């Protein structure tokens, strides 16, 4: 998931490092291009040694890729040093790949730093689609993220959503402004803490801070992954390993404390289905797959990292779009008022009856997917579009470009939620044009939770408050160099209480 990043490579240090590195050390190794004995997809003109690296510096990586593909085509073969990359930017090619070759591309690519707590060798995201992945996938689906598990944990989310409403109301009464992304992240983390550990994190358990620290290092983890083989050949120690591992060790220590506390206090609180299942498997000689403590810590770290930032960023983007489009805000509010009324707070069970709210969330994910790039690796050679792709080739699906592909979306750069109310459905045959959660067997297992959290958070903010935005309009500029696509500027605005007579609940 690390290369789902909006890497921008503006960091001149990295550029200089790469240039010096390539000039002095790599010539002998990489001047020879990978042997093209196959009929490969087209490729833009490349430079000696660095290949197409120079094409990727103009702006964020997803936009650089988009620029290259709009000039040279939706299926391209690129080379960075001697790393071969297949770049896909259209819905029809994405469809062909996932329909015919999902098994061949079910790996998220090589590991940069084995010991790292996220994207490392004990984790879930980089695990091959083998016994370990199947075992953990079954546990997270049945005990936390699947429809039945979600139904069992609905009550705990309801309590937190009501608390979220009360906090916003308190700020509204005091006329305090809030940063939407921060509020959403706090809510998501409390809910995820409860869903995975049966309780929220205490103040000193700075889980979300660690997730943010790790997110800031994703560029370096990614670079480490790309340079790993050449560096190993040259026996050069990885340049960013120390920095990455310092965060990783501290995160690991914190998670160890959290697990120990969970075990000690197990009899005092309800616990959680997923932790109980993981801990039981950890000590069980006869378990379907023998997992250890490192597996549990890595899974928790990846769940918190992969879920918190993505979910809060998508809520922030959706609110930014809604606040910039008064008509959309009004239509959303009318829909919620007509289904929910004005005397009770919107609930999860209302969401299926709110198609426009769902369409707004989907449209926002289409234009602003937190994971802009989907990195995979070809574990077997295969033919795509009649051209041969050799085993070991890296695959990058530019989800950002696919979801703005003019051949499968009308006015692709416009925010028009109506398109998800059936208008463009007829055009979706034989294309895979909506990829915010990836696709195939490695698609995001948390998409149900993401839709619930997004729907209910935005629902509360629209149902119960008017919003005063700082400045005339929200600035929709994208940040560069972040792990997940983010607004360049914080979304600060002030909630104004709407006259509602929300019934007191059991809080
Ligand atoms: C708006 C919110 C979210 C977005 C946009 C998102 C997006 C993604 C994407 C694009 C992938 C890679 C898919 C692929 O390679 O095809 C992914 C994987 C993953 N996501 Fe999410 N995600 C979100 C929320 C969540 C949540 C709430 C959870 C869990 C609580 C979660 C857990 C995971 C996990 C465990 C993986 C790795 C799956 C595997 O390797 O098999 N995500 N997510």
In short:
By secondary structure, the chain is an alpha+beta fold. It has helices at residues 12-30, 61-72, 91-101, 131-145, 147-152, 154-173, 180-197, 207-216, 218-233, 241-264, 273-283, 293-324, 326-340, 355-367, 399-402, 447-464, and strands at residues 75-80, 83-88, 178-179, 373-377, 382-384, 387-389, 394-398, 465-469, 492-497.
Structural features, described:
The protein is of the alpha+beta class. The protein has helices spanning 12-30, 61-72, 91-101, 131-145, 147-152, 154-173, 180-197, 207-216, 218-233, 241-264, 273-283, 293-324, 326-340, 355-367, 399-402, 447-464, and strands at 75-80, 83-88, 178-179, 373-377, 382-384, 387-389, 394-398, 465-469, 492-497. The chain is built from 16 helices and 9 strands. The chain has one domain (12-497): Cytochrome P450 (Cytochrome p450, Orthogonal Bundle), CATH 1.10.630. Helix 8 (207-216) packs antiparallel against helix 10 (241-264). A hairpin with a 2-residue loop joins strand 5 (382-384) and strand 6 (387-389). It starts with 11 loop residues before the first helix and ends in a 10-residue tail after the last strand. The strands form 3 sheets. The protein has a 4-stranded mixed sheet with strand order 1-2-7-4. A 3-stranded antiparallel sheet has the order 3-9-8. Residues 2-10 and 23-33 have low confidence and may be disordered. The site of protoporphyrin IX containing FE (HEM) has 28 residues, from helix 12 and helix 16. InterPro entries: Cyt_P450, Cyt_P450_CS, Cyt_P450_E_grp-I, Cyt_P450_sf, Plant_metabolite_P450s. The chain crosses the membrane at residues 12-31. Belongs to the cytochrome P450 family. Its main location: membrane.
């Amino acid at each position: 998931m690390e290369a789902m990043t909006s890497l921008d490579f503006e960091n001149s240090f990295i550029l200089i490092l790469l240039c010096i590195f390539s000039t002095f050390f790599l010539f002998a190794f990489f001047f020879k291009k990978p042997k093209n004995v196959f009929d490969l997809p087209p490729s833009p003109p490349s430079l000696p040694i660095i290949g197409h690296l120079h094409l990727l510096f103009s702006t964020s990586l997803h936009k650089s890729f988009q620029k290259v593909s709009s000039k040279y085509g939706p299926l391209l073969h690129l080379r960075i040093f001697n790393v071969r990359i297949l770049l896909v930017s259209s819905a029809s090619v994405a469809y062909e790949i996932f329909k015919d070759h999902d098994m061949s591309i079910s790996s998220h690519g090589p590991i940069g730093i084995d010991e790292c707590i996220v994207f490392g060798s004990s984790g879930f995201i980089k695990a091959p689609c083998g016994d370990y992945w199947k075992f953990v996938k079954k546990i997270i689906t049945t005990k936390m993220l699947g429809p039945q598990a979600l139904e069992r944990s609905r009550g705990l989310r309801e309590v937190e959503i009501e608390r979220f409403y009360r906090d916003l109301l308190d700020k509204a009464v005091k006329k305090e402004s809030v940063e939407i992304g921060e509020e959403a992240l706090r809510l998501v983390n409390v809910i995820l803490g409860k869903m995975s550990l049966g309780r929220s994190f205490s103040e000193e358990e700075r889980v979300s801070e660690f997730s943010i620290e790790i997110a800031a290092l994703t560029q370096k983890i990614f670079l480490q992954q790309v340079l790993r083989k050449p560096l190993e050949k040259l026996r050069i120690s990885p340049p960013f390993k120390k920095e990455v591992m310092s965060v990783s060790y501290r995160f690991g220590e914190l998670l160890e404390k959290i697990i120990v506390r969970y075990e000690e206090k197990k009899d005092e609180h309800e616990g959680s289905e997923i932790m109980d299942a993981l801990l039981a498997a950890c000590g069980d000689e006869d378990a379907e797959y023998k997992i250890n403590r490192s597996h549990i810590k890595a899974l928790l770290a990846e769940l918190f990292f992969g879920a918190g930032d993505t979910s809060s960023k998508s809520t922030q983007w959706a609110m930014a779009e809604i606040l910039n489009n008064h008509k959309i805000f009004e239509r959303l509010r009318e829909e919620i008022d007509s289904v929910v009324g004005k005397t009770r707070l919107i609930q999860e069970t209302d969401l299926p009856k709110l198609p426009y709210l769902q369409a707004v969330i989907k449209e926002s994910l289409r234009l602003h997917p937190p994971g802009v790039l989907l990195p995979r690796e070809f574990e077997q050679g295969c033919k795509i579009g009649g051209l041969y792709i050799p085993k070991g080739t890296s695959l990058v699906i530019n989800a950002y470009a696919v979801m703005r592909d003019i051949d499968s979306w009308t006015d692709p750069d416009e925010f028009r939620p109506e398109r998800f109310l059936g208008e463009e459905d007829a055009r979706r045959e034989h294309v895979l044009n909506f990829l915010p959660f990836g696709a195939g067997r490695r698609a995001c297992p948390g998409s149900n939770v993401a839709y619930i959290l997004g729907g209910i958070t935005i629902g509360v903010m629209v149902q119960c408050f008017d919003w005063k935005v700082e400045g005339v309009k929200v600035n929709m500029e994208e940040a560069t160099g972040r792990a997940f696509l983010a607004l360049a500027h914080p979304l600060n605005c002030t909630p104004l209480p709407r006259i509602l007579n929300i019934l007191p609940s059991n809080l």
